[in-house]
Amino acid sequence: MKKFLLFDNDGVLVETEKWYFEANKKALGEIDVELEFDVYMEIMARGGTAWEVAQKAGYSKALIDKQRCRRDEYYQEFLTCKPIEIEGVVNVLEELSHEYKMGIITTARRVDFDLIHSQREMVKFMDFTLCVEEYPRAKPYADPYLAGMKKFNAMAHECLVIEDSQRGLSSAVNAGIECAVVHNEFTATHDFGSATYRIKTLQELPKLLESLR
Q: The pTM is what?
């Protein structure tokens, strides 16, 4: 029986993956670097950075750092004005909170995470949240989910990770934790062959957990 649920944030609890891509694309476009979707998907899957494209094009670190800051500004703007809700998520979390301990483990910056959740109810169901500044190495390394297990003082077999990306799945696998991948059209081209479970929406998670009792 699972006792602890470790949720990814972007693409699982909120629909932000698209807007992070758009922010990167816009900032790179300002220096005449085209960020193609397929290229971004490959970079995202292995845990790289979109700025590899600018580096390969020969742009200086100073200019790249400047445009990264622009990217961050665009992304925060999108977070405040674009639709990022995923229907039914709050109801599912409320239901699960009666039986499970839960945490959010994300590669998002704390400042972006807090902006996303400042006017939303999801975090109140969580025992903790971990952002990219709060563990040594980001996904696909095991560090994020190992940190989550440590927070709960839990064993791997007691935990279930809920993810939507290949990078996140790899992090769970590297940590030795079973992972349920929830479908997200944005990451549909990723390789989820090592997922323990697949669900179409988060609303299917309670039924899946019931089957694991």
A: 0.96
